[in-house]
Amino acid sequence: MIKAIPLNKLFQSPRNVRRHADAAADVELKASIAAHGLLQNLIVRPAAKGKFEVEAGERRRRAMLALVTDRLLPRDHAVTCLVLEDADEAAVETSLAENFHRLAMNPADEAQAFASLVEGGASTEDVARRFGLTVRFVEGRLRLARLAPIVFEALASGEITLDMAKAFGATSDQEIQARVFEQVTSSYYAPSPDSIRRMVLSGTVRGSDPRARLVGRDAYVAAGGRLERELFDDDDSESWVDVALLESLAQARMEEHARAVAAKQGLAWVKPTLDTYASHDLVSGLVRLPAEPAPLTEAEIARLDDLDASYDEHAAILEDEESAEEAVAAAEAALEAIERESQEIRSRPPVLAPELKTEAGMILTLSRDGTPVLQPVFYGERKVEGQAEDGEIEIVAGDGGEGRRRSALSKRLVDELAMQRRDVLALHMASEPGLALDFMVFTLADADTHDWRSRSATTLRGGAPAGPIVGFEAKDAPATAALAELRTGLDESWRSGEDAAARFDAFRLLSEEDRAAWLGFVTARTLEASLNMAGERRIAFQDHLGSLIGIDTAQWWRPTAANYFDRVSKQVILDALADVGGAELSARFASVKKADLAASAERVFAGTYITEADVRERALAWVPDVMRFANSSPSEPEAEACLGEDAVSEVGDDHQTPHELAA
Length: 663
Known about the structure:
The protein is α+β, with helices and mostly antiparallel strands. 48% of the residues lie in helices and 10% in strands. It is built from 27 helices and 17 strands. Strand 13 and strand 14 form a beta hairpin. Helix 4 (107-119) crosses helix 6 (135-145), helix 8 runs parallel beside helix 10 and helix 15 (298-319) packs antiparallel against helix 16 (325-346). The longest helix is centred in the middle third of the chain and has 23 residues, at 243-265. It starts with a strand and ends with a helix. Residues 384-391, 396-406 and 632-660 have low confidence and may be disordered.
């Protein structure tokens, strides 16, 4: 029931899930209400003595109270409210739903709200479905709710970042979380998520730790580091208590070494890490540069020939059954020495072309014995072509673009569309394990001849690419939702094995169908984001894959105001209308303002706008050329097209519905 309620009768609800606010955003909201009034009603529940508790809209209530203080509104200002009679649990969900899609909630608030719903009996899958999220996202927030109170409050107040909070959650022991938090907050260096994760997983560090070997006992003690040593401990087994201090000293030592190596090698940069390997995050955005091992000298070639001849002589002794034990032992030792020397000669450092060296860099890792090791790979930053100074990219849609219209899309929109189109292809590949197997084998076999200057169609190393936009998920896209549903249907019973061998044996016991489903999924999740366009975002091989499958993108992605029309120019929208309805339809909207035009276009291409039947069919089959897979044209609809939850238009015998693909 909608009702006008005096402002002084409204109070904050204890069930309102928002606990923290953004001061700058609150100032903007206050100014908006002062200028335009309250544009959306509050959601309230009756309370005692004729008062009402605000379940959703607390920020708006506080903004109006601030206007009362400024004497711009009376204390009894009438506020339009939607009055609910929900139970407490439903009120929490109502508050969460109303807040979630507005000002981005503090992760701590989200964690508390999700935990409240789960405590009320909802499953993580239920929560994910209600709010259009992935199960993984909800589980991540629930882990945050179980952080030590001091860490959780630091996240809520913005003292630490979300990534840091996740790093603290690497262990479920709240005592360890609290101890590490005190260490990093009292140290004089800025902690990173990686350093926090190492600290919570270790608690203390042994003297044999690579970081300890790098820094050295004397330097650590001189900096104020504490040691704990029991009766039978030695230098390797003693405990170094101040892990944060050790991390700081080790990082400084690695950075110093990296600068020296960069100067000596003539490199543009050297990135140091305290890990024993170059992590994905460290090389993200970088591309490997072509480098060949240094050529062997004539003396080295001659020495290898001598070693090969000597190897044959000693191997003959081992093969002779009448050889004496002393001779066999001597031959085995000689063979080990020969293999070691041959390996040292053949292990040549890579050599980079002089014209590339001024922009090249390398990764400096920390070996297990505490020695900085320069990884033998040269990296360069990937160059993005086709981007204009104003942040827009000129798009030439189609296979080469001859004779096509040119338009400009923002870099952000290009990246979002590429990721959504990637999900469409990923869903279909996940549903065709035969093709996925061929793709995987071919990609691995073709790695030797891949040109480093061109982007690979896949990461095919098992992991999923991050995508050009961190954290973006097309929650309302049918392909993305179906892909998530497919993931939840995989048989994970084999994960219960105690070690890798047990898990592998359990996995092999799965049915052929279940193993094939895993093959399709793990291959499909490696796909890079791409678009059917000229420039850096184009990966032609993915278009070929889409053509083989026969994907009709229109069945899995529809243009809306939010995901497309609000993001392009008015002329691009009018051109799209002309594509499906000719000049007459385009002219009908020519004088409409941009915001209204975007909303109308969404209705046209969703099939809900009243127009001719043939125009509606073409509209339902239309997607921007950049979203199509080259050489794969959409099928003619055989019935009324609909992308609702209960019906999907038939698109031919070679196509499957979202339900069939997710199943």
